[in-house]
Write a structure and sequence with these properties.
- There is one protein chain.
- With 161 residues, this protein is an alpha+beta fold.
- The strands form 2 sheets. Strands 1-2-3-4-5 form a 5-stranded mixed β-sheet, covered by helices on one side. Strands 6-7-8 form a 3-stranded antiparallel β-sheet, with helices on one face.
- A hairpin with a 2-residue loop joins strand 3 and strand 4.
- Helix 1 runs antiparallel to helix 2.
- The longest helix has 21 residues.
- The radius of gyration is 18 Å and the shape is elongated.
Length: 161
C-alpha cells in the first residue's frame, strides 16, 4: 500500500488499497485557525455575528477528514461525500481550475464520472495537484489509455497529465 498524504488509519482492515490519498494538511490548519480566531472574536466582543462566520472555515475543516482509496479499478472516497467509482469506465467530465477560481468564482472542479453515472469531485483547494494527477493516471491505467491515445474529457479535449 502506498500512502500519498498522511498515514493509514490505525486498524484499517478493509481491502488493501493500492493508493491512499488524504486532503491537504495546510487546508485543515488554516481552516481550524480561522475558525478559532472568529470564535475568539465572538467571545471577546460578545457578538454572535462572528460565530456564523466561523461556520464556513469549520465546514472546510470537517471536509479534511475524508480520504480517497484506489483499489484495483475502484476508487472510493470515505467521509462526508462517500462515493465508489469504477475507474475502468470513468471519463473526465471537467479538468478543474485553480483553487481560487473554484472557491471564489464557482469554477469547475476536477470531476470523474463512470458509466453508472456516479461522479467524483476533487476540489483543488482541498486536494493537491499530485493527488488529482495520480488519480488521473489510475484512470488512464484502468482504461488502457496511453500517450498514443490520451484520455479525453466530454468536450474532446485532452485531460491534463
Amino acid at each position: 500500500m502506498q500512502v500519498v498524504h498522511g498515514r493509514p488509519e490505525p486498524g484499517w482492515q478493509r481491502e488493501t488499497a493500492d493508493l491512499v490519498f488524504r486532503p491537504r494538511a495546510s487546508t485543515a490548519k488554516v481552516a481550524a485557525a480561522a475558525c478559532a480566531i472568529l470564535l475568539g472574536v465572538s467571545l471577546a466582543t460578545g457578538s454572535r455575528g462572528p460565530i456564523w462566520l466561523a461556520a464556513v472555515p469549520f465546514l472546510f475543516f470537517v471536509q479534511c477528514f475524508q480520504h480517497l482509496e484506489v483499489v484495483g479499478n475502484r476508487a472510493r472516497r470515505y467521509g462526508l461525500r462517500a462515493v465508489e467509482l469504477n475507474l475502468a469506465t470513468a471519463h473526465v467530465t471537467a479538468t478543474g481550475r485553480s483553487w481560487w477560481a473554484e472557491l471564489f468564482f464557482l469554477g469547475h472542479c476536477f470531476e470523474l464520472r463512470d458509466a453508472d453515472g456516479r461522479g467524483l469531485l476533487l476540489e483543488s483547494w482541498l486536494w493537491s495537484t499530485s493527488t488529482r494527477d495520480a488519480l488521473l493516471q489510475a484512470v488512464r491505467a484502468a482504461n488502457g489509455a496511453t500517450t498514443d491515445r490520451p484520455l479525453e474529457d466530454e468536450n474532446g479535449s485532452e485531460a491534463r497529465s
